[in-house]
Amino acid sequence: MRRSKIAGIGKYLPENIVSNKDLTRYMDTSDEWIQERTGIRERRYAHRTGETTTTMAVEASRIAIERAGIQPTDIDFIVFATLSPDYYFPGCGVLLQRAMKMNEIGALDVRNQCSGFIYALSVADQFIKTGMYRNILVVGSEKHSFGLDFSTRGRNVSVIFGDGAGAVVLQPTEKADQGIFSTHLHSDGESAEILAMFNPGTHANHWTPNELASFNKAELGDMFMSHEMIEKAQNFPNMDGPAVFKKAVVKFPEVIMEALAANHLQPKDIDMLIPHQANLRISQFVQQKLGLRDDQVHNNIQQYGNTTAASVPIALCEAWEQGKIKEGNLVCLAAFGSGFTWGSALLRW
Ligand SMILES: CC(C)(COP(=O)(O)OP(=O)(O)OC[C@H]1O[C@@H](n2cnc3c(N)ncnc32)[C@H](O)[C@@H]1OP(=O)(O)O)[C@@H](O)C(=O)NCCC(=O)NCCS
Fold first, then answer.
1. Burial of 333 (0-12, 13-18, 19+ CB in 10 A)
2. How far apart are CA 203 and CA 3, in angstroms?
3. Residue 195's pLDDT band (boundaries 50, 70, 90)?
4. Which residue has the least CA distance to atom 12 on ligand 1?
5. Ligand 1: which atom is nearest the Cα of residue 29?
6. d(CA 151, CA 252)
7. 339: Cβ–Cβ under 8 A, 6 or more apart, which residues?
């Protein structure tokens, strides 16, 4: 069966740089606290009205498509990963198709949060392997700055996240030892509420004894989003940071080892590990656990924060642009996040 390769890659980071110090204007936090716990120094925020999750994806996609040496009309399928879509529905895939004037191709939206890009890549990989498509655009893009609680109440979440987009064009490869060797996807919904945004949603407080949403008493409707929910700040993401941390440091190494074992390889064989940029401490823990040198891992959370589905393609693109990934290199992508969901992809560049 044929393999798929990354034929072009692009990234887009909004111009607006927001430092830790900038955030102290809105909440009780400090540069020291944020750097010590997460490694983050600054992040980018999209223009409030001039940029959306999809427009950032367009910028990253243009570069990826150009680097692949093709036109937007050559793309025959879109897989778009995000947790911060322009609309609740329809998804960003169709908005990207429209904005880039692509043909009436399929556009699939993936909702797997921080592991969204790995899931999206895996889906695209299967379509290439079976021969169904030849040029698939795989995108991760997020505009977190629109939906965070910038008061002290939301500081454990809001200091971590940033905006940006990354995209790749996946194509079949003719070379025997090139492309995606395997992808590995996992989930454990037991702790779904540990890192989640509950509202708007149809849960009706069904899953937990805690009241996740305050509904009004209307006989019909009005349960999706109410004034009460907004008044009680139930429209923001929630995170039990330490619980996420504990699970992440187990599952990251596990899924990387799973990818290596499936291909009869070892950590020392990895030329570049691109971990999802959740927290610099998590990446450092994973690096240490696998016994990798600094030059075998690329981190950029210091500059961009956690960009969720965009973090892996942004970091991969940056490492490649900096000459840290060369043809023939073994590259491992790995992610863990809300769901929980996690996954890895092992490929030869
Ligand atoms: C979120 C995270 C940085 C918090 O660090 P932590 O050391 O676990 O901190 P805690 O949540 O236990 O909070 C410690 C204290 O800092 C405070 N705090 C939280 N956010 C703060 C902030 N931005 N600035 C200052 N203080 C803050 C807390 O209120 C708490 O105060 P208390 O001790 O008086 O109650 C860390 O848990 C983490 O990175 N977890 C993983 C999160 C992640 O990766 N999420 C994305 C998944 S893909």
1. buried
2. 40
3. very high
4. 242
5. 24
6. 31
7. 112, 113, 115, 187, 188, 189, 192, 195
Q: Whole-angstrom Cα distance, residue 60 to residue 314?
A: 9
Question: How large is the average pLDDT for residues 204-215?
Answer: 93
Q: Is 300 annotated in the active site?
A: no
More confident residue, 218 or 96: 96
Distance 154 CA to ligand 1 centre (A): 10
pLDDT reading at 209 higher than 90: yes
User: CB of 226 within 8 A of CB of 181?
Assistant: no
Instruction: Respond yes or no on whether the N-terminal peptide bond of residue 90 is cis (omega within 30° of 0).
Output: yes
24-38, 39-53, 204-218, 270-284: which has the minimum mean pLDDT? 204-218
Token couple for 142: 């997020």
Instruction: State phi, psi for 206 to the nearest 5 degrees.
Output: -75, -35
**Measured from the CB, is residue 238 less than 6 Å from ligand 1?**
no
pLDDT at 23 over 80: yes
- 184 catalytic? Reply is no
C-alpha closest to that of 313 among 184, 142, 135: 142
Paired tokens of 221? 């409707």
Spell out the SS3 assignment of 210-244.
CCCCCCCCCCCCCCCCCHHHHHCCCCCCEECHHHH
pLDDT number for residue 176: 85
**How close are the terminal C-alpha atoms of the chain, in Å?**
18
Tokens representing residue 319 in the block:
């490492």
pLDDT at 218: 83
| pLDDT at residue 332, rounded to an integer | 98
Asked about 306 being catalytic, the answer comes back as yes
Q: Using pLDDT thresholds of 50, 70 and 90, give the confidence band for residue 116.
A: very high
